Amino acid sequence: MTGPITRINPPQLHATPGYHHITVVEAGRTAYLAGQVPLDPAGELVGPGDLDAQIDQVAANALAALNAVGAGPEHVVRSVIYVVCAGEPVLGAAWRSLNSSVIGPAFTTASTLLGVTQLGFSGQLVEVDLTAALPG
C-alpha cells in the first residue's frame, strides 16, 4: 500500500502558481505514464492548431490512463508539461487550461512546464508526462 503523499513548499523557495516544489511519497507502487498526447482512440490528431482542443484530449487521455491503474489526478506525484510555443503567454494559458481540466488536481504536485519547438506528431501542440503513486 502506498503511504501518504506529502506536498511541500519550503518558505525559503519562491511562491508557486499552484504546484508544490517537493512531493514525498512513502514506499509503495508507482505508475509511470507515457507522455499523453492529443490523439483520439483511432490515433488521429485532435484539434490541429487548437491548443485548448488538444489540452482537452490530452486531459481525457491522461485520466483514462490513470483510471486504468486505479488512480486519479490526486495520485499524481510528478508532472512534466510540454507546449509548442515561442513565448510565456502561451505557456501561462496552457497551465491555466490544464489546471481547470478534468486532471487539474494532478498539477498541485511537483510540476515542470516547458516550451518546446516540436513534439512527436505533426501538428501536436501539447504533451503531458505523469507519474502517480498508486493507491492501496
Structure, explained:
- This protein has 136 residues and is α+β, with helices and mostly antiparallel strands.
- The longest helix is centred in the middle third of the chain and has 18 residues, at 51-68.
- The mean pLDDT is 92.
- The chain has one domain (5-133): 60s Ribosomal Protein L30, Chain: A, CATH 3.30.1330.40.
- The chain has 2 helices and 6 strands.
- The strands form 2 sheets. A 4-stranded mixed β-sheet has the order 3-6-4-5, with helices on one face.
Task: List key phrases describing it.
alpha+beta, 60s Ribosomal Protein L30, Chain: A, four-stranded mixed sheet, hydrolase activity, EC 3.5.-.-
Count of discrete structural domains:
1
Got a strand count?
6
How are the strands of the largest sheet arranged?
Answer: 3-6-4-5
CATH topology: 60s Ribosomal Protein L30, Chain: A
Whole-Å distance between the termini? 4 Å
Strand percentage: 25-35%
